[in-house]
Amino acid sequence: MLKKYAFLDRDGTLVYEPQDDFQIDSLEKLKILPGVIDGLKKLIGDGFSLVIVTNQDGLGETSFPLENFEIPQNKMLEIFRENGIEFAAVFVCPHRASDNCSCRKPKTGLVDGFFKDKVDVDNSFVYGDRETDREFAKNLNLKFFKAKTNGKFDLEN
Q1: 10 Å Cβ neighbour count for 40?
Q2: 153 located within any domain
Q3: In Å, what is the CA distance from 115 to each residue of 3, 11, 20?
Q4: Known catalytic residues?
Q5: Count of domains in the chain?
Q6: pLDDT in tens, 78-133
Q7: Whole-angstrom Cα distance, residue 36 to residue 15?
Q8: How far does Cα 147 stand from its chain's mean position?
Q9: Phi (first) and psi of residue 34, to 5 degrees
Q10: Residues 36, 33: Cα–Cα separation, whole Å
Q11: For residue 43, what are the domain limits?
Q12: Cα 101-145-51 angle, rounded to 5 deg
């Protein structure tokens, strides 16, 4: 059975993305953006299943150890759970753009297996703050809603 999905970028869209190093690698840097909790609750109430799709440059390398990602990531998911927000899936590409992998947005390798025979393409969408998110939506044949980087969660723009 096909479902409606909201494919959501993480950094700069759901949580504040530092503009100096672009990494949320500590609890001190974790900040849920304004309107996110209410916006996600509304999407769930409107029958959407939520999916996070995020690029995390160099995750697992010495410069960005896995633990430095997992601690704030797990705290973020805990905050969402405490507010009644569950995600159907969380997809993380650990590669850099120069790695030319098949899973880094705007490529669809991360979600191809998930996407097949599950997604109501006519009623699902991608919400993100980068051109790669827009291209990701196009590659999946989904609608796209542009977020303002580190702005209020707003699907009306």
Answers
A1: 23
A2: no
A3: 10, 22, 34
A4: 9, 11
A5: 1
A6: 999 999 999 999 999 999 999 999 999 999 999 999 888 899 999 999 999 999 99
A7: 8
A8: 12
A9: -60, 140
A10: 6
A11: 4-96+107-117+135-144
A12: 55
